[in-house]
Fold this protein.
Amino acid sequence: MTTPPPMVSGRDIGKFFRSADGRVVPALDGVSLTVHEGEFACVVGPSGCGKSTLLRILGGLIEPSAGSVARHPGQPPVPATAFVFQDFAVLPWLTVRANAAFGLRMAGVRRRDAERAADAWLRRMELAEFADGYPEQLSGGMRQRLALARAFTTGSPVLLMDEPLGSLDPQTRRLMQEQLLALWQEERKTVVLVTHSLDEALLLGDRVLVMSARPGRITEELTVPFPRPRDPGIQDGPEFGRLRARLWDRLRGELSVGAR
Ligand code: ADP
Ligand code: MG
């Protein structure tokens, strides 16, 4: 089997920020990673370790202080609208349809074509009946589905997701995880997803990258052995529990470093 081409890669990425009182804060230190076409990579790590910073650098929203992000020949840059954020999910002043079409409109696609593509994704996300309404009329779970619809509507082969399910209640979150699993299996996008949830990473990911406390570094890479298509029922099996324990062991070490 040949390895699919790399779609997202960074080498020796470092990032410093300057805090309000002028101190230099190292957020990332020497992070290298390559995500191949059609791969679902998950990033877990303690709060504040630089996960969002890494994702923004990979997407070209901010520049690294050191190292580089590869632009692979023939592959378009990731449009900013192919990001899914936990908080900044949707634009409240636009209708649901216009939100879903937003990425394509920003890319210069004609309204009619953008809205047709948006409507198709709204149907798949079971939001079609709300297309003419506004985001405030949607529940939290629906709003996250809208954010996903917007990202998928862009047609970007790469999706970058920063805790996209982080603000949902546990039951809605579990349903959304299953929906995302099924969706990925149909679409085979290249995904980098940041999450706090080890279960989410193991359920969805082909590979889990564990980051250290700040400055973030990748300290462990785990290849998830479950075959595709995956049944969400794997979460109740012994192998899942064993892998979760291994990831938790790694992560716990980093949490105590951060707390010292
Ligand atoms: P995570 O997503 O893993 O919680 P972040 O990438 O958001 O972590 O942040 C990593 C570190 O960088 C934190 O200490 C945060 O306070 C700092 N940081 C992030 N963005 C900025 C910024 N724009 N200016 C200053 N410090 C920042
Ligand atoms: Mg973050």
The pocket of adenosine-5'-diphosphate (ligand 1) is lined by residues 17, 19, 25, 27, 45, 47-53, 214 (CB under 6 Å). The mean pLDDT is 91. The chain has two domains: 6-72+157-259, 92-155. Strands lie at 6-18, 24-36, 40-44, 66-70, 83-85, 158-162, 190-194, 207-211, 218-223.
